[in-house]
Design goal:
Blueprint lengths: L2 H10 L11 H22 L4 H9 L3 H24 L8 H21 L3 H6 L4 H19 L11 H26 L7 H10 L2 H11 L3 E4 L2 E6 L2 E4 L10 H15 L1 H6 L4 H7 L8 H6 L3 H13 L16 H10 L3 H11 L5 H14 L2 H7 L15 E2 L7 E2 L2 H18 L1
Antiparallel strand pairs: 1-2, 2-3, 4-5
Length: 422
């Protein structure tokens, strides 16, 4: 995006009412978020995300984005189940509902891109408590997933169920990254935020569960698969002990929460917490420490913890702040879930054919093929033989081929889709 357009989009971000979820104004806001998200990814890959960071801080938009994140989460758990039980709810509603689910993914992805910077974390102010709570809920879902309990994503249309479950998993992984960036700033966090992470949610023990169960890694047909860059990959035997980015996020968060002097003064090292933390010792192998040398300090800390009784934490905080956004949305809409659902099924989730076509054209402009190719981590492959491709169908611009021969060979299969796309 040109700087002026990026600034205009940031300035246009504003909080929306839960009742308006899926409506025309809300959809425009989603387009703004999506464009900023893609801009953030491309800027970060070029090392030029400072402008977006400065804009979000200058115009105070981080609390707005966190508010939108919490609003969608509450909508999913409070309004959506009611919506599904209404007689007027039709299959045509699938498209806008998918957009609502995608809105959460876009926001958490944008936050992951910018939360690397201390200024962003500080500009969140009191809304950081809501974000910490949000990340805690998502990490709990990850732990539940690793215990073979599927995340509860209630999406009635069968074709959306698998997509929604995959999206929920990826959102939870992004939340893990955001949480790790928050823990990088423990020195400048408000006292209540630190208390919430350490004692209210006991994040150190939750992170130990993630180290133990590693939900982004699984064995399938005798092969180890790991989730990286949005895909499951088979890991060759020689790379099976290699630390992934997600493994690194967990260990770095643990380092921040356990080795910081401020955290050590506030954390309850009671019998249960101590026994959970000592489980980490078995994972701290020489191979792992070679990949992340800072873990040597963690190893020394755990050895010391095993033979000593840490002093009880200082109780210096009498009043504890509570998350403002979550409580505000719940209080404002409590008892109105059915009324909100009826309003939304009438105004947001029963689009006409013309409205769907208009919205589809808007998405086509937002998600241009050139933009999607720039965001894709891998180079295109030939539809026929799978080798790297440099040519694509000039009519629909949707299929790639390595040679003219492969394109001709595939034409009879490709023709119906090509006609439809054109």
């Amino acid at each position: 995006l040109p700087p002026a357009e990026a600034e205009a989009l940031v300035r246009a971000l504003q909080g929306t009412e839960l009742r308006d979820t899926g409506g025309q104004g809300w959809l425009r806001q989603h387009e703004f978020v999506e464009k900023l998200n893609m801009h953030g990814i491309l800027s970060a890959s070029a090392g030029q995300e400072q402008l977006l960071t400065e804009l979000l801080v200058t115009y105070g938009k981080i609390p707005v984005l966190i508010g939108e994140l919490i609003s969608v989460e509450i909508w999913k758990h409070k309004v959506f189940p009611v919506l599904c039980r209404l007689k007027d709810f039709k299959p045509r509603s699938t498209f806008p509902i998918y957009v609502v689910l995608h809105h959460e993914a876009s926001i958490i992805n944008l936050l992951e891109t910018v939360f690397f910077y201390k200024e962003i974390c500080e500009s969140a102010e009191d809304s950081i408590l809501d974000l910490i709570d949000y990340c805690h809920r998502k990490l709990t879902l990850l732990v539940a997933r690793s215990a073979n309990e599927q995340a509860a994503v209630l999406v009635p249309p069968q074709e959306l169920q698998k997509q929604a479950e995959t999206m929920e998993f990826e959102i939870s992984l992004k939340a893990l990254s955001v949480l790790r960036f928050i823990t990088d700033q423990v020195e400048s966090l408000p006292l209540s935020a630190l208390t919430r992470m350490l004692n209210t949610h006991n994040l150190p023990c939750l992170l130990v569960e993630l180290v133990e169960h590693c939900p982004w890694s699984c064995w399938e047909a005798g092969k180890l698969k790991k989730f990286e860059n949005g895909m499951w990959h088979v890991v060759p035997p020689e790379d099976q002990v290699k630390m992934t980015k997600l493994d690194g996020q967990v260990w770095l968060a643990l380092l921040n929460l356990l080795l910081s002097p401020e955290c050590q003064r506030k954390y309850h090292f009671d019998g249960f917490n101590k026994s959970q933390l000592l489980k980490l010792r078995v994972f701290l192998t020489d191979v792992l420490i070679d990949q992340l040398p800072n873990l040597m300090e963690m190893q020394r800390f755990l050895s010391h913890l095993a033979v000593t009784e840490p002093a009880p934490p200082k109780k210096d905080l009498i009043l504890e702040q509570v998350p403002v956004i979550w409580d505000h949305i719940l209080k404002k809409n409590s008892g109105k879930w059915e009324a909100i659902a009826k309003h939304q099924v009438k105004h947001s989730f029963s689009p006409t054919e013309e409205e769907l076509k208009l919205q589809a054209r808007r998405w086509a402009q937002t998600y241009s093929l050139d933009m999607m190719e720039a965001l894709a981590p891998d180079k295109p492959r030939c539809r026929v033989c799978g080798v790297e491709a440099a040519k694509r169908c000039s009519r629909c611009r949707n299929e790639w081929y390595c040679t003219r021969a492969c394109q001709v060979q595939h034409w009879q299969k490709h023709k119906p889709a090509c006609n439809l796309m054109a």
